[in-house]
Amino acid sequence: MNIKGFKFSAVEAAVKKPGRLDLALIFSEVPARVAAVFTTNAVKAAPVLLDEERVKCGVVRGLVVNSGNANACTGARGMDDAVETTALVSQGLGIGSEELLVSSTGVIGVPLPMERLRSAIPRLVERVGESSLGDVAAAIMTTDTFPKLESRGGVAGGVPYTVAGVAKGAGMIMPNMATMLAFIVTDAAVEPGLLQDLFRRVADTSFNSITIDGDTSTNDTALILANGAAGNPVITAGSEDAVAFESILSGVLLELAKQIVRDGEGATKFVSITVKGAASGADAKKAAMAVANSSLVKTAFFGQDANWGRIFAAVGYSGARVEQLKAELFFDDVQMVKDGLFTGGDAEARGTEVLKKKEFSVTVDLHLGSGVATVYTSDLSCDYVKINADYRT
Amino acid sequence: MNIKGFKFSAVEAAVKKPGRLDLALIFSEVPARVAAVFTTNAVKAAPVLLDEERVKCGVVRGLVVNSGNANACTGARGMDDAVETTALVSQGLGIGSEELLVSSTGVIGVPLPMERLRSAIPRLVERVGESSLGDVAAAIMTTDTFPKLESRGGVAGGVPYTVAGVAKGAGMIMPNMATMLAFIVTDAAVEPGLLQDLFRRVADTSFNSITIDGDTSTNDTALILANGAAGNPVITAGSEDAVAFESILSGVLLELAKQIVRDGEGATKFVSITVKGAASGADAKKAAMAVANSSLVKTAFFGQDANWGRIFAAVGYSGARVEQLKAELFFDDVQMVKDGLFTGGDAEARGTEVLKKKEFSVTVDLHLGSGVATVYTSDLSCDYVKINADYRT
Question: Which residue of B69, B71, B73 to mutate against A (max A Cβ within 10 Å)?
Fold first, then answer.
C-alpha cells in the first residue's frame, strides 16, 4: 500500500509493557489539509485540547501518538507534556511545533512517562519511512486483539489516489483505557471546506454510529490528512469526483468502525440496528442508540434470546416519537412484530435461529416518516464484565 | 400494622407458576384520594393507559393487580382485558368499575390469561379483609427475591395515622418482565392538590432516583391512596402537619426504593451516588444518573476497583456543565480527586478498601453552583448477565 507523500514510524518507548510498539508517527512530506472530529466529553484529555487549537489553521505536517497512557485528567502538567512531545518530534523533523498533532490512549489520570518518551523520540524520528501504516495500527493498540487497518483506491480527474486509515478501540470499552482513535491519510487533493464537511458527515454514519457500552471517552479523536501528493486536480464540492471520494472515504471509515465493534471487549455478536420510518433522522438515531445501549437487549443478544419486548421498550424510552400500534420489528428478514403486536406462529422459533448467528440485523419500522439510521453494536457478555471488573486487580 | 379503612386480598390465579400468589386487591371502605406517577415510556401497557384516565377524577376505591403478565404490547385486546378485569372485581365489590384501578407486571407481548383470572376473581373478592398488605407485597413479586414492604406512623392535629407501601422490581431489571410497581396506602386525610404535589416530589427523589440497568419499563406505576379513615383534620398545604407527612411519605418511598436496588438482579453492592456543587439541580441529576448507568463504572464497583477515571468520564459525557480542574471526588470520606487531579499518596489503597464494602457512597463535587442530587444503584455483575441472557432458554 502506497499513500504518496506519507511516511510512517513506530517504535517501542516502554509506555506499554515491553515488547510492544507504543509510539508512532505519521508524517507528510508536504503540508496536508486536515479535518478532525473530537470527543464531545466535557472532560477532555490534554492532547485533544491541544489538537483542537492546532487543526484550526487547516494545514499540518503530521501526528505523533502514544498508547498505554491517555494523558487525561492530568491538568497543566498534561498540557506541558503534550506540547513538549510535539516540540521534540518537530525539532527532529525540522518542522514547526504547531504543525504537528498529538494523540494519546491508555490509562486516565496518570502523567505521561516523559523520560521514556524523551529517550525514544530520537529513534522515532530516525526511523521515519522505515515503518508501514500497519505498524502504526499495531502501535496504537491497547486491549485491542487485532490491528485495524483499511485502504481503498479511487480516481479523480483520471489520477489514481488512495485513502487509508487505522483505528483502535471503540468508545470507552477499554478498562480505564480511554479512547477511540482513528487516523485517515490520503494523497488526494481535496478542497479544505469539502474535506471538513465530508469528514464530519461520514464520521457521523460510521464512528458516531457504533457503541459497545455507551461510555464516551475523554480522548476520542478521528482525523484525516490529505496531502495532494497523488497529483490529482483538486476535488471540489458538487463534482462527480467529490461523490466518488465520499463513497470511498465512507467505505474506509465504516469498515474501521465495524472492526472496532467486532473487537469489542467480550463481544460474541455483531449486530446492525436499523430504525426506519421515524418522524426524523434524529429520532431514528436516538431510537437505534437506545436499543444498542440497552443492557437488557445486549444480554438477550448474548443469550440468543429473540426477546423483541426489550427492544420495543428501549425504543419506547428513547425519546423518539412512537405509535406502538404502527411499529414493526424484524430479526434479519423474520417479522416478529406487526402493527405493534407479536406475529405469532413460528416467528419465535425462526427469530431464535437468527439470533444464533454471529452477525445479524434488527430492523424497527416506526411507520411515522422517512427518518432512518443504522447503528452497530456488540452483545453484553459475562466476559465483558470479567474483563472490566478485573482489569486493575 | 393497621391502616384504617383498607382491606386486602391475595390469591393464586395461576398466572405465575403454581404455588405462588399472583392476584391481589387493595380496597378502601370509603372513597380514597389518589395520586399517581406512571412510566414515561412511549410504549405503555394497557393498565397504565387505563389508570391514567381513571385517576383524573381524583378519587378511587381500590386497585386490582396481577403478576406474571404485564399486559403490555397487547393492543386493543389488552385494553379489553384490563377493562373486563376491573369490571368483574368491581361488580363483586358493589362499586363502580371506573372507581377501580388495575396494574400488571410480568412478560411483555402475551395476552392476559383471562380464563384463569375470571375463575380466580370471585375468590379474590370473597377473601377481602382476610389477607394482609404483606400478602399483597408477595403477590406482586416476579423475580424479586424478597417482598418489599414499609410502614411508618405519624400524627396530624393530634390524630395518629399510618403510611404503608409495597413495591416490586426496579426499572426493567426483570428479564422480559416489565416493571416497577409501588402502591402506597394511608388512612390520613390529605388535601387532594397537596397529595398530588407531595407524591410527585417525593417519587422524584426516591423511585425516580434509582437505576439498576437504565432500562425504563412499559408498566412503571407508583400510586398512593389516602382514605382519611384515621379521622385526622385534613392535612393542608403549608401546614406543619404537611411537612411531617412529607417526611414520613418520603421515608416510606425511599426505603422501598432502596429495597428495590438491594434486590437488583445479580447485585452485590448498594451504591449512593451524590453529585453536588452542580450548576443546577437538573445538571446534578443528569451527572449522577450517567455515573449510575455507566457499564464501566458498574463493572468497576463489582470488581472493587477504585477506578475514579471512569466516574469522571461519565460525569463528562452526562451533558452537565463541568470544569474539570474544579472537580473533587470521594469514595465515602476518602478524597480521590482534588482540583480535577488524582490526590495520590495512599488514596488508591484507602479507596479500594471503601469499594470492598457492601454499601458505600460516591460523591462528586463540581464546585460550580448549588445543584445537588443523589441516585441509588447496584453494580453490574456476571450474574446480571447470566440471569438476563438465560431467562427464556
Answer: B73
